[in-house]
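Changelog note: in this version the structure field was regenerated for every chain. One regenerated record is shown below for reference.
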Amino acid sequence: MKSYLKHIFIILLINIAVFSYAQQNIDGKPFNKTKETAFFNEKGFNIGVPVYSITLPEGSNYRPLLIMGNWGFNITKKEKRGNWWAILEPQFNPVFLNNKLSEADFGINVAFRYKYKLNDGMYVFGQLGSGPHFITISTERQAHGFIFSDNLAFGFSKSISKNIFFNVQARIRHISNANLMQHNRGMNNGFIVFGISKLIN
């Protein structure tokens, strides 16, 4: 992997850790978030393992690993069995070509999620989103640089502790650039995504 990509990856992980866990008041005491003090009602972290990948014209197998933050805002104000959420997913994704770490893509996904309560502490959800990305790979199938990442996911969420949830989802991702550059055949991947999230209430 190119040296500058390693530096970007390290900086991203540091920023996720700092913003997720190091917030304090002016007096140095931990900052306790509540519905009244936090814009996001959920925060978390996801890793997507590729289970379906494509072979590029050059012969390499294209397999990205998704490393994503997960920040959610509950759009449905009243407590209901089914709720709409707005989701932000900043991400940096190492890309493996023939099982060798070679490239990367990064960006942010903006999604809408419908989350349905099965019983206390157990939910199912569907999610549809898109967002701007940048890919480093150059291939006859897809021009490198600015691109859009479109995502469709279906998942399950289970409480494992107070306000802490384990999440698993099946996700399909399509990346292409809306014909802003050539080539633009697009690239598709399938993932199983595992994550941990915390509800703020």
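Spot check on this record: Residues 3-199 form a domain with the Porin fold (CATH 2.40.160.20). Confidence is low (pLDDT under 50) at residues 14-37.
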